[in-house]
Amino acid sequence: MKVIRLAVVMIVILGLGYPLAMTGISQLVFPHQANGSMVYNDQKQAVGSELIGQSFESPQYFHGRISSIKYDGAASGTPNYAPSNEEMIKRTKEEADKWLAQNPGKSVGDVPLDLITNSGSGLDPHISPESARFQIPTVAKTTGLSNQQLEDLVKKHVEGRVLGVFGESRVNVFKLNLDLHKLIQTKA
């Protein structure tokens, strides 16, 4: 009987009390993050999460890393291929060829590595600032915006290292493209 009472008490404390307490604290202290880091348009409609990349196919937008899972959050993960894997080599070469076709005069060594490889989760919304700058001439040509306008936009979206130490500088492609879309709309 004592064991059953202990089990019930633990279920209530750890199964209900703790999750409810953590949810309440997170809603008070970090409400934006606790609710999925959602991004809203001017009409206050959720258009995505700043934590999950999205596929941008049009050449007038910046493109993120490739995703084996098509940015499907339910299928997070990616094949863990070795650099010598034939499928990985083929896919990487195909991606590099796509970027070179869009950027005449560039060589394979000019294409930033994060544009032709995917992240571990397949959901990463970030690219390096160099990858964003690499795309500026194509985006400028298709949107009619100047290289300087786009450079300023990229600079605005560069996020530094976490706590000034961890990781690398990065650009959130989703948020960058939302601001780019606004620029295109005001130009039209």
Please indicate the percent range of residues in DSSP E strands (runs of 2 or more).
Answer: 5-15%
> Which ranges are low-confidence, i.e. pLDDT below 50, for 5 or more consecutive residues?
none
Main beta sheet: 3 strands, antiparallel
Share of helix, binned:
40-55%
Count of runs of 4 or more consecutive helical residues? 6
Describe the protein in words:
The protein is mainly α and 188 residues long. It folds into 2 domains: 1-35; 51-187, no CATH class. 47% of the residues lie in helices and 7% in strands. The chain is built from 6 helices and 5 strands; from the N terminus they run H-H-E-E-H-E-H-H-E-E-H. The strands form 2 sheets. It has a 3-stranded antiparallel sheet with strand order 3-5-4. A two-stranded antiparallel sheet has the order 1-2. Strand 1 and strand 2 form a beta hairpin. It is globular, with a radius of gyration of 21 Å. The model has no long low-confidence stretch (mean pLDDT 90).
Describe the protein's topology.
Layout: H1 2-29, H2 31-34, E1 38-40, E2 46-49, H3 86-102, E3 126-127, H4 129-143, H5 147-156, E4 158-159, E5 170-172, H6 173-187
Antiparallel strand pairs: 1-2, 3-5, 4-5
